[in-house]
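Example 3.2
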Amino acid sequence: MHEFRWRLLWLSIPTLLLCLLLWPLLGLEYAFGTLAFAAIAYLIAHFYWLEKFALWLKQPELAAMPIGSGIWEDVFAALYQEIRRQTSSHTELTSALERFQHAASALPDGVVLLNNNDQIEWCNPPAEIQLGLNPAQDTGQPIGYLVRQTEFTSYLQAQDYAEPIKLNTLRNPDITLEIQLIPFGDKQKLLLCRDITPMEKIETMRRDFIANVSHELRTPLTVVGGFLETMEDMGSGIPENMRQYYKLMQEQTLRMRRLVEDLLTLSQLESNRTTPQEIEIDVPSLLGMLMTEGESLSSGRHSLKLEMDKNLNLNGAAEELHSAFGNLVSNAIRYTPEGGDITLKWSMRGDNAVFSVTDTGLGIEPEHISRLTERFYRVDRSRSRSTGGTGLGLSIVKHILTRHQAKLEIQSEIGKGSTFGAVFPAARVIRKNLIGT
């Protein structure tokens, strides 16, 4: 632009000098006439090149761009260079997009690109096969119109894509897909789809094996436990030096029975994909039972305290939540030294309801916390055996809470104790309106 101004100035100066020379020689009229003629000629030239520019814009081919003269030569030259840069940039972007599409097409997992209205922009061949998509017909269609399972529709609308979901396709119910949405850009989404049928079959075999073995072990363990109790009741029939062995056998038999029961419970939870019963649970009454059970398990070795909102209930499965809450209470009792304090709390936190168990135990180191809900994971194996734990309690708790759309929160500090909290969503919370309370 600066160069254009200088060129315009250098074109204007000779014309003005000529007019100034003609003024004293031929008079003012000739001077102004010359100036007017020069201005008209200059405008005609501009109109000519504007017309050329307008005609070129109808078919803007780079090779057919006018060359121009004067200032227009610079204008067309600058425009030519800018179009070349834009063309080069467009070519690079197109090449990058093609490379991305080739790479995504080579992936074994399905990939679908969704715009800000959840409409399909592009998909790779595995996604076509797994989800039954046809790019020629389905591009621009909302993904919810083509993947019609209720679970996927709820997942899409929930806007919470932290965890994937599992679906059985309508086209082939024997195939299980794992689908996850990943937001990016301006409200766009990337849908990743993977066939996990082989893994699901292996997982089903594992669950069936554990369930079958547990069922088979339950009967002989019950028989062995019954005989040991009978022999212990015989009293004088057992030599004094053998009593400690009978006691040890009873303890280990009881421990194995607990393990079998927990394995069966966990297997049932993992196999049951139906949502829990939508029944109102009288949580204050449930917590009263937990306090009684906890005091019995503690046998006076700990101080148990209950703080609760008596007007707060939940929708869910009472037996499952009793099991989950009971596991948290029993863990606190088992892992808190004698004389420690244990506090059960039931209250609202924002829109969520929270049941928490706080103890004054030894605490858990940070590196262990993320793994506590793994099956058979133990922070201290020798201590777990001595307390009678099976290593499955928190895994059971996690499964039950997941079935209730709840989550487990764990906070712990070495030397001060731990807090295990079950956080329930607002959709499961029931507030009782009691008059006079």
